[in-house]
Write a structure and sequence with these properties.
The protein is built from 18 helices and 19 strands. With 484 residues, the chain is α/β, with parallel strands linked by helices. The protein has 3 domains: 2-57; 63-310, Endonuclease Chain A (Endonuclease, Chain A), CATH 3.30.870.10; 320-483, Endonuclease, Chain A (2-Layer Sandwich). Strands 4-3-2-5-6-8-1-9-18-16-15-10-12-13-19 form a 15-stranded mixed sheet, sandwiched between helices. The protein has a two-stranded parallel ribbon with strand order 7-14. It has a two-stranded parallel sheet with strand order 11-17. α4 (61-70) crosses α10, α6 (97-108) packs antiparallel against α12 (320-331) and α8 (154-168) runs parallel beside α9. The two termini are 38 Å apart. 46% of the residues are buried.
Length: 484
């Protein structure tokens, strides 16, 4: 018996050693991530091996190459659009020299600065869904929709029925759903759209279509994108599920943020969708095909907001959205307000916030007081304590806050799908809209102030009063933070 145990432990130790070698030399993981996995593999060798195979293994070289191959540069698309020069006539609200730096950063990573857009902000799911349904019903040419969660519940069935109706009317309808986020919705639910004449793609489908076996379940398409007729776009935090409309009493009130873009700012969202569609369906048509087919109509000046749409994903060598956020923070001179459901930053992000605070910037961070993921919340609390010690004003929203927003000074605003944690920065496929507008910034400052009234500010005494068990769990999960 002893010999068998020794053999098993030797095999497991050898496999774990090979995993570490792969992380260092093949996957080139960050030191913090390697240390976290080393801790798990050391203290829980057998369970750790299983967890790594399920959650930790990186995207294969083949997958990374395939996704990258299907990417189309937004700049390559836009230079072929008739009338793109007309955007030069759009009214642009004040953009400072510092703003040029963040604009240039995003531009060099493919995010074209599109002026002349109109942007509407929704601060709850009901407002967003009401507007979305109306826009879907008015669609004439195409509907491109991509959601992390598309549920087979009341609101999910309502949206699906509209999509099927439009497909039967001859509108080209395409839907991408994430295999993990939408796992509770049966495939027959999505086949309704296919039967109606629409097209459906499952992002990172499981092995042999067996949902319990998904070797890519750690890499999720967390985007929420809708583009209608190439002219109207939606993105933000609100999925197609009842609880995102505040219908779940456990996490009520549910506070979220979404935006509706009209104008050339939609191009970036359309581009991201097409990239994901090309990969999911293995399409190889040239970029000009999508212009000729009307997915990028000639631009019309609809407002005075300049919009840049930035995307990121685990196949990219650079965490573009995280770096853009750090660059945004670096431009702050007066205020920096952040809302996020999960706050698990790395040293670079925390360093940027510290510099802002020490430079006299009014920094405020708001997270929910009701957690939906306990382990992630313990890590968040440990980082919040550091923020308070820095001098940041930290607020706990009395409900569940799912907004992913950043306000900088008087004219910059970011709203998107990206949480402030390692999962969103490095493991998920995400997008965010960086907008330059004094009116839009002021409007969301008002929304933030309203949220403050429904929150309570925490000081060091809040963290000192925590039970010893909570403090131990915070320390343990903090060590594993790079894996969340």
């Amino acid at each position: 018996m002893y010999n068998w145990i020794l053999i098993v432990m030797t095999v497991v130790a050898s496999m774990n050693f090979l995993l570490l070698i792969a992380m260092v030399f093949l996957e080139q993981r960050k030191p913090q991530t390697i240390i976290s996995w080393l801790t798990i593999l050391t203290f829980l060798p057998i369970l750790g091996f299983i967890l790594y195979v399920i959650f930790g293994s990186g995207l294969s070289v083949r997958t990374r190459r395939m996704i990258k191959k299907k990417d189309i540069s937004e700049r390559d698309i836009l230079k072929n659009i008739d009338g793109i020069h007309n955007l030069k006539n759009a009214k642009v609200e004040s953009i400072t020299e510092k703003d040029r730096h963040i604009i240039n950063y995003c531009y060099n990573y493919g995010a074209y600065p599109c002026p002349g857009s109109d942007v509407q902000i929704f601060n709850n799911g009901i407002e967003k869904i009401t507007s979305l349904k109306q826009d879907l019903l008015n669609a004439k040419h195409s509907i491109n929709m991509e959601y992390y969660i598309f549920a087979n519940d009341k609101i999910g069935r309502e949206i699906m029925n509209i999509l099927c109706q439009k497909a039967r009317e001859g509108v080209e309808v395409r839907l991408i759903y994430d295999s993990i986020g939408s796992r509770k919705a049966p495939r027959r639910f999505f086949r309704k759209l296919t039967k109606a004449g629409g097209k459906v793609a499952e992002f990172f489908p499981p092995f042999m279509h067996i949902r319990l076996i998904n070797l890519k379940l750690n890499y999720r398409n967390h985007r929420k994108i809708v583009v209608i007729d190439g002219k109207i776009g939606y993105t933000g935090g609100i999925n197609i599920r009842d609880d995102h409309l505040g219908l779940d009493s456990k996490l009520s009130p549910w506070r979220d943020t979404h935006i509706r873009i009209v104008g050339s700012g939609v191009y970036g969202l359309q581009n991201i969708f097409i990239d994901d569609w090309r990969y999911s369906k293995k399409e190889s048509v040239p970029p000009k095909y999508y212009i000729d087919k009307g997915y990028f109509p000639s631009p019309e000046i609809k407002g005075d907001v300049t919009v840049q749409i930035l995307s990121s994903g685990p196949y990219m060598p650079v965490q573009k959205i995280k770096e853009a956020f750090i660059k945004l923070i670096a431009t702050a001179e007066k205020r920096l307000y952040i809302q996020t459901p999960y706050f698990i930053p790395d040293d670079a992000f925390m360093g940027a916030i510290r510099i802002a605070v020490m430079s006299g910037v009014d920094v405020r961070v708001m997270v929910p007081s009701k957690p939906d993921k306990k382990s992630v919340y313990y890590v968040t609390l440990s980082y919040l304590k550091e923020l308070v010690e820095m001098g940041v004003k930290v607020y706990l929203y009395q409900g569940f806050l799912h907004s992913k927003t950043i306000i900088v000074d008087d004219n910059k605003l970011s709203i998107g799908t990206c949480n402030l944690d390692n999962r969103s920065f490095g493991l998920n496929f995400e997008d965010t809209a960086i907008m330059y507008s004094e009116k839009l910034n002021k409007k969301y400052q008002e929304a933030f102030a309203k949220d403050v009234k429904n929150s309570f500010e925490v000081g060091l005494s809040y963290f000192k009063k925590k039970r010893w068990l909570t403090k131990i769990l915070q320390a343990i999960f903090r060590l594993l933070a790079p894996l969340f």
